[in-house]
Amino acid sequence: MNARTPQEDVKITVGYKALPGQKDDRLEQRTVQPAAGDAPPWDATTQFALVGTDVDRVDGLAKASGRAKYSYDVTFPGMLQAMILRSPVARGKLTVLELDEAARMPGIQAVVALKEIGNKVRFVGDAIAAVAGVNLHLVRDAIERIRAEYEREEHNVDYLVANDAPMVDDKGLVTEDWPADEGMTAALLDAKVTHDATYRVEVQTHSSLETHGGVARWTGNDLEVWLSTQATFGCRGELARALQGKKVDVGSVTIHSEFVGGGFGSKFGAGIEGLALCLLAHAAKAPVKLMLDRFEEHTTTGNRPGALMQARGGVDAEGRIVAWDWRSFGHAGFSGSGGSVAVPNYYTGDAKVRRSHKDLAIDADPPRPMRAPGHPQGWFGAELFLDELAAKAGVDPLAFRLQNDREQIRLDQWRFAAERFGWDAARARANAPGARMRRGVGLSSARWGNLGNPGRPAHGITCRIHQDGTVETRSGAQEPGVGTKTMLAVITAEELGVDLKLVKATVGHTGDPSGPASGGSTVTPSLAPAARHAAFLAKQQLCELVGKHLGVPANEVVCAGGLVGLGKSQLRWAEACKLIGPNPIDVRGQRFANYDSKPFHGSQCGVQMAEVEIDAWTGFVRVTRMFGIQDCGLVITRKLAESQVLGAMIQGVSYALHEQRILDKRTGRMLNGDFLRYKVTGARDLPELECHMHSIANGHDSVGAAGLGEPPSVASAAAIANAVFHALGTPVRHLPITPDKVVQALAKKG
Amino acid sequence: MTEKTKTHEDLLPKDLCPSMLMKHLLTHSLGERVYDDRKWPGDGYYWCARTCTCVGPDDDIVHPRDCRPGRTCYEGPLPQA
I want to staple A645 with a disulfide (CB 3.0 to 4.6 A). Which of A553, A636, A712, A750 is the partner? Predict the structure, then answer.
């Protein structure tokens, strides 16, 4: 790439070349207007040296060797440990709170109230007070010395009997009539084949390996917090606001979060634990660590909500969907919101469509976003419904998708996945009548729509080139394990034409330029163009120096393959950087607005296929293999992109077969709030996993990348449920698909 | 399916209390298109910057429907006279 600055229309090629085994390229021309000073756009014709290759995670060795310091690992001399007293009552009012005895205990240095007398208590686990002391043993003792009393009220932790819940029979089927709609009634009457079914999913917890919490240290009115978070800048502002009474402003709060042990959507806010540790550190005048234990993590930090979903629909004689009626009810915790369900919208074309959703409040911890909020739930119900409808119509599920899917990218993906997975042969393989071990295959689509944003104020990246040839790229945004550092390093190395080993990426300190929270798959598409712009600016400065040194026009100097220069007048990168002098080239790139022209496609498409083997005697389901193809715009680092997809599949296996929060209706307490009784997929449960990254030039900005937190999480559970339907010949409409449900389904089938 | 062209920003009350937080504010994604018939922006998970929980300083639930002028803990811009 040369250093020319485009300020006029640029013609680019968007789309993708034919997938392996397919003939047709899907390439189109666009004219875009990059912002003045921005890097010229990469497109489908760009030849990359590094982008798209299999580089290793730049911090992989640090993580594998234990050198990576998570908030959990941070420690200081004299640091205190802390815990939170939690409510044992699911609903009521705090009537007594006496902290004095705990505060007087030896070794206890701070006790703070987190609720006032008279405040409502809304779930088992609601935070009441917090204690800091020299070790956790003393802190536990002190917690027990706090006198807290409650006025109990009748509670309910079952959303299916909440106010406004629909009537459900003893088989879990919604029995309420559908709301009147003449158009829907007519469409269903006109359909050749119709179907009506009820689906249900249970609550899944985020189960991040690093729990919520952190370490706080005050120096006068300056506060530093090492926080396990998905939003460094959000938490900085939040804590500054929460601590207004401590004479704190945003500029005096610094958040550090360079390594985060997972978040999956649960770590956007500082949380009561974040506020508590700051208050305790302030009161104790000492650094304080407060990390939640596993039970608190399961019960007080959000979840993927459960849902009850009902669908009815019909197809015409050609197998086209002509009616699609959907209603869902989500568990929403005490807040009464956040239980929403999303469903695919690309199958229905001109069909008569209706959709409604209602959140149902219960006396439990509210949901929080979790990888593609609402999508895995809704896709499970919708895609299983479609398979059932297809079966009634006598159509193969793949043929049914090809008939009804309206998005060209996914149509190509369906065909590619079917070929790679061996769909036709696997689908045709019949289980012997009465066989104990039964195999089946299933599929599901996926969709997520986020191509990044410029930020308000614009996201930034610092790029420094040093005299010794090393390069820094820095963002204050966090990285919850998804590979952001590697992405930043690869983009920078590609733009500068240098070896990746020369680039050090640092994230997670709010002293560096701001970036978005890690949510909605926004970070990569939002920060990659800023990283590229920063490197582009730094390169221009280096090219000025080299041009002057070599006596060639700076705007014609090229950085590529570790060389800087023009034609035969070139310097090795290390020699060129010696021209920089003792002070580095130090620039700040920014994320410009997305191009005005229409992107190639406004969302990301994917397809997954799964094979299961089921023991019909025990009901035990084992997923034996899965294949996925996933579009994420431009693939920046293939290995890490694949890792995101495979990880989502693993989480999907867990959601489909294992995970379920169980609340005791009598007490409101979670009965399986640990990793012994809350089953998460382990190594022995894993199938053969394979994926293909579908790189697409979307023409959205100078890079054209998209994120992978959400997109591959949408399809997995649905594909597995459809494979179970194929294997058994009868659907299991309730996740997780545990052995008891399989046995019941077989018994019902007869 | 009829897709509405509204965004999360369209669903965000203009007089919202600045202490009310949600994911889309932190990811700068208010401009994202909304594909369903939801009435309120974001994922439905709202919390208060002053309490760091889903309950405001007045002990009531945080929600864009409610975190507006008239609430005792409201700190945002008041309606113009």
Answer: A712
Shortest distance, CA A640 to any CA of chain B (angstroms): 22
Q: Which of A633, A605, A604, A630 is nearest to A700 (CA)?
A: A633
- Closest residue in chain B to residue A242, using alpha carbons only: B50
Please give the span between the terminal C-alpha atoms of chain A, in angstroms, as a whole number: 67
In this predicted structure, the answer to whether residue A1 has a pLDDT above a threshold of 50 is: no
Please state, in angstroms and rounded to a whole number, the distance separating the CA atoms of residues A210 and A74: 13
pLDDT in the model for residue B81: 58
Q: If you classify domain A376-450+600-749 with CATH, what class do you get?
A: alpha beta
- Chain mean pLDDT for chain A: 96
Listed residue (A606, A747, A725) closest to A656, CA to CA: A725
Amino acid code (one letter) for A709: G
- Using the beta-carbon criterion (under 8 Å), do B52 and A368 form an inter-chain contact? no
3-state secondary structure of A67: coil
**Tokens 């890097």 sit on residue:** A39
- Amino acid A445: pLDDT: 98
Contact B1 A337 (CB under 8 A): no
Kindly indicate the confidence band of residue A66, based on its pLDDT and cuts at 50, 70 and 90.
Answer: very high
Nearest CA in chain B to A324: B1
**Residue A2: what pLDDT?**
42
Q: For the full predicted model, state whether its pTM sits above 0.90.
A: yes
Interface of B with A (CB under 8 A): 1-3, 19, 21, 23-29, 31-33, 35-38, 40, 43-47, 49-55, 59, 61-63
Count of CB pairs separated by less than 8 Å, A with B:
131
**Residue B80 resides in a domain:** no
In this predicted model, what pLDDT tens digit does every residue of A251-298 receive, in sequence order?
A: 999 999 999 999 999 999 999 999 999 999 999 999 999 999 999 999
The pLDDT assigned to B80 comes to 67
* Pairwise CB contact (< 8 Å): B47 & A237: no
**CATH superfamily membership of A76-156:** Aldehyde oxidase/xanthine dehydrogenase, a/b hammerhead (3.90.1170.50)
Percent of chain A with pLDDT over 90: 96
pLDDT band at A590 (very low <50, low <70, confident <90, very high): very high
> CA angle A442-A444-A446, nearest 5°?
160
A226 confidence band (pLDDT: 50, 70, 90): very high
Closest B-chain CA to A237: B49
CA distance B23 to chain A (A): 7
A-chain residues near B52 (CB < 8 A): 238-239, 242, 269-272, 274-275
What is the phi/psi pair of residue A534, to 5°? -60, -45
Q: How many CB atoms lie within 10 A of CB A101?
A: 14
Collect all residues of chain A within an 8 Å Cβ-Cβ radius of residue B54. Answer: 334-335, 366
Q: Could you list the residue range(s) of the whole structural domain that residue B36 is in?
A: 1-71
Which of B2, B33, B52 is nearest residue A238 as measured by Cβ atoms?
Answer: B52
8 Å CB contact of A520 and B31: no
Q: Where in chain A is the domain with CATH 3.30.365.10?
A: 46-69+452-590, 376-450+600-749
Contacts of A257 (CB under 8 A, 6+ apart): A71, A226, A227, A228, A229, A232, A478, A508, A509
Total domains, chain B:
1
Give the H or E element holding residue A308.
strand A307-315
Contacts with A516 from chain B: Cβ below 8 Å = 26-29
Put simply, the answer to whether B54 touches A366 (Cβ < 8 Å) is yes
Nearest Cα neighbor of A34 from A439, A592, A742 is A592
A268/B59 touch (CB, cutoff 8 Å), yes or no: no
State residue B33's pLDDT score. 85
What pLDDT digit, counting tens, does each position of A559-583 carry? 999 999 999 999 999 999 999 999 9
When pLDDT is cut at 50, 70 and 90, the band that residue A548 belongs to is very high
